[in-house]
Amino acid sequence: MDEISIKSIHIHEKFGHGPSLNDIGIMVLEDVISENQEKEYGIEYGKIFNKLIYEDMKTVAIGWGKQFQDGNSSDKLRVTDILISDSKLCESADFRYDGNNEMSICSENINGNGICGGDSGGPLLYNEDNLESNNAKKAVVGISMKMAGIDQNKKKCEEIGIINYFVNTFYHLDWISNTSGIPRSDLHHNHFDNQYQYQNQDQYQNKHQNRN
């Protein structure tokens, strides 16, 4: 496979200054990927999911992480089904969680499927049956972030009841657009006025400025 050089790396300016909710970055390639490379390597381009995230929404997480807590990282790209949750457990395991249409997205491991060590940074993709198409699966809902447990005796990623958290990519849409130079509208997966209550981080911060 051809090597493609990286021109620059942009890390979110608030990364590492508190919660891992700003665990996001952008790599700019030195050269534009050619049409021949797209065809030869099956390269596709994702866009950001910009509709409301709802209870029991079907998604898939992709990564090279471990398949179980004490295992090794995978040498193959793995895919696992993720069902979006909105239970009280999501807030109990992380007080910063405030619903799936805010900064983070939650999923409770109810069948042994979830993210594990090494999956952080991988995409969470929309995977509903009624849009079972290549185009639908290019909708990036979130980014794998971390795991947490209510029961201190349960800390293994494969255990039932472990909570998975994902960065909400739509929450960072302004940052992605400003950093990449790509207009917001070109990043939208669905081309209509989005339905989110909060349009940017400033509105979110104003809503929560007294919360502590």
UniProtKB/TrEMBL annotation:
<protein>
    <submittedName>
        <fullName>Proclotting enzyme</fullName>
    </submittedName>
</protein>
<dbReference type="GO" id="GO:0006508">
    <property type="term" value="P:proteolysis"/>
</dbReference>
<dbReference type="InterPro" id="IPR009003">
    <property type="entry name" value="Peptidase_S1_PA"/>
</dbReference>
<dbReference type="InterPro" id="IPR051333">
    <property type="entry name" value="CLIP_Serine_Protease"/>
</dbReference>
<feature type="domain" description="Peptidase S1">
    <location>
        <begin position="1"/>
        <end position="181"/>
    </location>
</feature>
<dbReference type="Pfam" id="PF00089">
    <property type="entry name" value="Trypsin"/>
</dbReference>
<dbReference type="InterPro" id="IPR043504">
    <property type="entry name" value="Peptidase_S1_PA_chymotrypsin"/>
</dbReference>
<dbReference type="InterPro" id="IPR033116">
    <property type="entry name" value="TRYPSIN_SER"/>
</dbReference>
<dbReference type="InterPro" id="IPR001254">
    <property type="entry name" value="Trypsin_dom"/>
</dbReference>
<dbReference type="GO" id="GO:0004252">
    <property type="term" value="F:serine-type endopeptidase activity"/>
</dbReference>
